[in-house]
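The material for today's practical consists of a large collection of protein records. Backbone structure tokens are a discrete shorthand for how the chain folds in space. An example says more than a description, so a record of this kind follows:
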Amino acid sequence: MAYSDFKTLNAALTAFDLTLQNQSEVDSTKAVAPSEMLKAQLREGVDLAVNNNTEKARSELIVSPILMEIRRQLNSSISLFSGVTLNVDISNGLNGECDFILSASTNQLEPTTPIVTLVEAKNNDTKLGLGQCVAQMVGAQRFNQQQGNSRRVYGAVTTGITWRFMTLSESLVAIDLSEYLVPPQIEAVLGRLVEPFQ
């Protein structure tokens, strides 16, 4: 098994004995203004990605610029990884490639603790990535714990246009029932991505 084998949310919840809590965070999200650079990238990238209609195009043209913006907003005090392997516990399916990892470390050579946020990109439907993202969050949680860090882990599943956020604290997975749309709600998306590092 691997992260990608967790095709449903229930599969991940059952495999790792997790409890689900639904919540709505819209009102508590602090908006973060996008830079002019990101606005320009999204003006061009969103149309290209939607018309290409592939996961790769969405990752490269929408998701990557947004995550690079987070790194800039935080003055490069975090590390950003794309398409790296996070093998933590192969026997339990906590292994494989993660689309994006954000770590509260400046080590840009390899993911180091604490891994704070994982972002899973999907082509059409955020619900299709919930199980895989939860499994990756469990992998990050155990990776952090092995290094003596018990920090909350954050996750997001996105089509580039639609974003859904969640957290993992001990064995509780909290999933925001609200979806955020880019570009109209880019300030809220940036706010949700910056928040774990503050």
The chain has a mean pLDDT of 95. Residues 94 and 139 are 5 Å apart (CA to CA). The helical segments are 9-15, 36-52, 55-73, 130-146, 186-194.
